[in-house]
Amino acid sequence: MTPAEIEALFTRSDGAYAFARWGRPIVPIVFGVDDKTLETVKGAIEAVVALAGHKMAETDPELGANLMFFFFREWDELLELPDLGRMIPNLDTLVGKLKDADANQYRAFRFDDQGAIQAGFVFLKMHSELSRLPAETLALGQVVQAMLIWSDKAFAEQSPLAVAGEATILRPDIAGVIRAAYDPVMPVTASDPAHALRLFARVQAG
């Protein structure tokens, strides 16, 4: 992966470079799935966190859980969840926009004073093509996209996953970027495209 390709992963549609990683241990919670799927999602989280060299914990001192996955059939179901409107500003308006766009997924993040990811919310409407994906593929793809603040265009044309034999795996180039992003010498957030050159150097060193 070239420096330009890495830069593109974090360059948004408006041209701004925006990168952030988790600054605290990840504490996941999953809503709306059976026990088997729950284990699949948590397994994907554990695998990607281990790849990054980051940490997980039993509880977050401020939020309890800080990475929340919601599986549901209709966007309106979110409006019935207690306290979600307190965590997601203007939830009513957001749900309306997602319905109008016929979206099947949405991710939202909160950040701490240093600009690192403090909390993540992953919303997956399963009454769509998402329901046809194997649970392992869906979980891995969503966890990868929740580990960093990627560009809104990052995976529009190519998935972060690849097929190896009968298994679906994380693409090695994307795995390298995640590992580099969580290197202790790297900043938790960046808005200067020169950050991509530093990521490239860490990928090469790895």
What descriptors fit this protein?
2 domains; four-stranded mixed β-sheet; two-stranded antiparallel ribbon; 7 helices
User: Strand-and-helix sequence, N→C?
Assistant: HEEHEHHEEHEEHEH
Beta-strand percentage range = 15-25%
Overall structural class, as computed from helix and strand content, comes to alpha/beta
| Radius of gyration computed on alpha carbons | 17 Å
| End-to-end distance | 13 Å
Could you give a short account of the major beta sheet? 4 strands, mixed
Q: How do you describe this structure in short?
A:
This protein is α/β, with parallel strands linked by helices and 206 residues long. The chain is built from seven helices and eight strands. The two termini are 13 Å apart.
Would you write up a description of this structure?
The protein has 206 residues and is α/β, with parallel strands linked by helices. It is 36% helix and 18% strand. The protein has seven helices and eight strands, in the order αββαβααββαββαβα. The protein has helices spanning 3-9, 35-52, 84-87, 91-100, 135-147, 172-181, 194-205; strands spanning 19-20, 28-31, 67-72, 105-111, 117-125, 161-164, 167-170, 189-190. Strand 6 and strand 7 (167-170) form a beta hairpin. Helix 1 (3-9) crosses helix 7 and helix 2 crosses helix 5 (135-147). The radius of gyration is 17 Å and the shape is globular. The protein starts with a helix and ends with a helix. The mean pLDDT is 95.
